[in-house]
């Protein structure tokens, strides 16, 4: 039973790095990442707050989006038992997430009212959600069933045991590389994209979600995500998930510097992906202890 | 397999385009000399901006216009490779800004063939009312520019030179009412305004999102006497 439980478990890793333009312009990190895992199930969310001046509280907006997503997906993750019902569950969850996000935003506005004397705040009085504009990518996995939901830009990718990567959700025809759909739109669910994946049937070893900061500066503009997927599976096998966890912040630092934008990534991997790596001889100089798997980790530098 | 996740990275180009009026009226009052001095003086500032923005590859082009548009620097050129050669005004030349904007739009269309880039920064400098002897009106040229997605998302700034500058047309070129529209009334002002506009444009254009942050920099206060607007 313990071996079977281990075989079916999921590990979630995440990191986030502020973009060089945000540092230059003295802006906050506007991405948010939130994850949860109990070993058998995992939930993860990545949100990218918009940089335009009209979205001057987007760092709050993205944080509230990640919280809303993880809260709701934790609530329903136990219901992900049947592929035929999971589609409706994820759509209902997305609806609840959007509603809860708007409610949380309104609570924040009550606590931090807009100042009418500032022209941006004056505009916000007419459209109170707009300053909090953000994208959202989220995933939940229980047993073999993985669901993904996405509003706005960013990348959600599945990777098979053989290292083959595929896009988790359909393309959004409204995304043109310059603009993005947003939770602050009047009807954000119109931009909702979802997927239900039977990870056993599809042979999925891991999924990763990342904000567009990770991919936009890649020389291989069309294939970077395939390479990323292939590398993650290979690294997981050869060096273990703990090694990936340790490397992830540095992997995000470079695109955040060169691309200028905040960059965040979440990886949900089968816990046994790195099982083989653990059998390798331990480096005698290695004195660090494995990091504990923490619930409700919020990785924000 | 490389240890860098996702493969090689490259800085995105930031296309910086000056559109400069060299019509006949620019020969009056030392305007063309002042414009040349201003461009010479702004280049070191742009080099500083390039160093301050490691995420953007700043590439410069210059389009001059009088009776017809003419590329002074047609190939996108890194700012540290620019060697400025003085522009001459065209005696009795017209101000064919509409045609210039069509030529500019044709150049922007090639951006779609390349990799992704930041929205361009375009700085227009003109001292007169647009003419249309070529058959292309300013309105038509502007519409062509705005119909191109790079033209529409570009950071567009404009500077008038002297009292005859058509500030209404320059405002239409800018579009965004929040962006300052300046008029230089002496050589020192032209230098200062072009430097300010270039630094502000490069900062705004190189943000990773469209219109990111907006242009919030305050323009410098006018210095010196308005000699270009008092000449008889």
Automatic annotation (TrEMBL), chain A:
InterPro entries: PPM-type-like_dom_sf, PPM-type_phosphatase-like_dom
SMART domains documented for this protein: PP2Cc (SM00332)
Protein name: Protein phosphatase 2C domain-containing protein
Region ranges (Disordered): 275-301
Annotated ranges, domain PPM-type phosphatase: 11-268
Source species, domain of life: Bacteria
From TrEMBL, chain B:
PROSITE patterns listed in its UniProt record: VWFA (PS50234)
Gene3D superfamilies membership: von Willebrand factor, type A domain
Pfam families linked: VWA_2
Segments forming domain VWFA: 15-204
InterPro entries reported in the protein's UniProt record: VWF_A, vWFA_dom_sf
Protein name: VWA domain-containing protein
SUPFAM superfamilies with a match to the protein in the record: vWA-like
